[in-house]
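Q: What residues go here?
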């Protein structure tokens, strides 16, 4: 297993441990992880970064519950973790006419925004995580958000540790301050366009 994948999985386990210690309600909503072979079968010919398989071996997303608010189901701001089966369905139905067939969705806001990784065959080398926002006015509708899945979850974990992200004990919804998250994200994601668009210091 590559060191990058090992590091991601360790970070994911640290994240899960933090959510457990914090009694975060989102943890109980996440589906169990699936084996590499199962994810590969669902993805078919799509060539995604290797760490995507580590992500799905940790947890296989969350099944959306219409009885809950979106804020109760986001793993991070505007990010509901798509099960691999639903991610493939979304890709098949809308990728070509929205963001392009060369990117695959991992997280969705369910308001139109998605976080994407590249998936364009054997030439796929980039580990960048992109943010797709069809309503963007002051930027392109697709911008780089995180340098990799590893730095994405390092950023998310650090935001939770510093209480920049947290789940409200009463509503169960995620609360966040993106201007403070920006201070954490930029040092970890030097190539990010998304975080430089966020107002703040």
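A:
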């Amino acid at each position: 297993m590559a060191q990058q994948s090992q590091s991601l999985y360790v970070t994911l386990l640290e994240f899960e441990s933090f959510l457990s210690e914090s009694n975060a309600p989102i943890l109980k909503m996440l589906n169990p992880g699936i084996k590499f072979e199962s994810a590969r079968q669902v993805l078919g010919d799509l060539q995604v970064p290797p760490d995507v398989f580590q992500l799905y071996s940790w947890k296989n997303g969350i099944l959306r519950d219409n009885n809950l608010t979106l804020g109760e189901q986001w793993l991070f701001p505007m990010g509901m973790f798509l099960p691999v089966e639903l991610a493939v369905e979304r890709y098949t139905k809308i990728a070509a006419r929205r963001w392009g067939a060369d990117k695959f969705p991992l997280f969705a806001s369910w308001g139109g925004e998605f976080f994407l990784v590249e998936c364009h065959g054997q030439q796929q080398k980039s580990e960048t995580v992109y943010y797709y926002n069809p309503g963007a006015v002051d930027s392109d509708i697709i911008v780089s958000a995180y340098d990799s899945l590893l730095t994405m979850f390092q950023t998310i974990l650090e935001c939770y540790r510093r209480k920049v992200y947290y789940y409200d004990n009463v509503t169960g919804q995620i609360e966040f301050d993106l201007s403070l998250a920006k201070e954490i994200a930029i040092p970890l994601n030097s190539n990010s366009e998304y975080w430089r668009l966020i107002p703040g210091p």
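A: Context that may help when evaluating the design: The helical segments are 3-21, 36-43, 51-58, 70-73, 84-95, 149-161, 178-188, 194-197. Confidence is low (pLDDT under 50) at residues 1-5.
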